[in-house]
Design a protein that fits this description.
alpha+beta; about 170 residues; single chain; elongated; 4-stranded antiparallel sheet
């Protein structure tokens, strides 16, 4: 006596039960491809050298605090202008400075911009549309004697204000 008239592959239930394991295998393959296709941008090779450089960075932060530096930055996407001001003890700070906008996860979007404040400490430059992200903002003089840094959530925050905090 035959119980099955049709072979197993002609029934729906075996195929339905195989969907789960097949989906897991495919998801594992895609996850493996994503993990190995791109290098992790957050890991640095010379972590020891960067760790030693922390004391140098603290010296620059202390210099910025002694000068009572403040930096204001705002971006207008309608005009494509990045504008701001750089002040020391409430007075305009003139001379070239370097502005770095560091994307939180994609290093290819990082920007290094030379700004030259006018006699009032103000500057304005043309800038293409900023990516929606949490940017790290860093401003330093060209000789790297002082530094201001902070975070900026664009576009939730239209502007950012950085002030030198006293460093222990």
């Amino acid at each position: 006596m035959r119980f099955f008239v049709t072979p197993w592959y002609a029934h729906r239930w075996p195929w339905f039960l195989m969907i789960g394991p097949v989906a897991v295998v495919l998801a594992g393959i895609v996850t493996g491809w994503i993990a190995f296709a791109q290098q992790d941008a957050l890991v640095v090779d010379d972590y020891y050298k960067q760790g030693k450089a922390i004391n140098q960075d603290l010296r620059r932060d202390r210099a910025a605090a002694a000068m009572a530096l403040s930096f204001a930055l705002r971006y207008d996407p309608a005009t494509g202008k990045l504008a701001g001001s750089l002040l020391a003890k409430g007075q305009p700070l003139t001379g070239a400075a370097q502005l770095r906008l560091v994307h939180s996860t994609r290093p290819e979007l990082d920007m290094r911009i030379v700004i030259e404040p006018d006699s009032r400490g103000d500057f304005a430059i043309d800038l293409p549309m900023l990516e929606r992200a949490r940017w790290q903002v860093q401003v330093e003089d060209m000789q790297r004697n002082w530094r201001l840094q902070g975070g900026w959530k664009w576009p939730q925050e239209q502007a950012v204000q950085l002030k030198a905090d006293p460093v222990q």
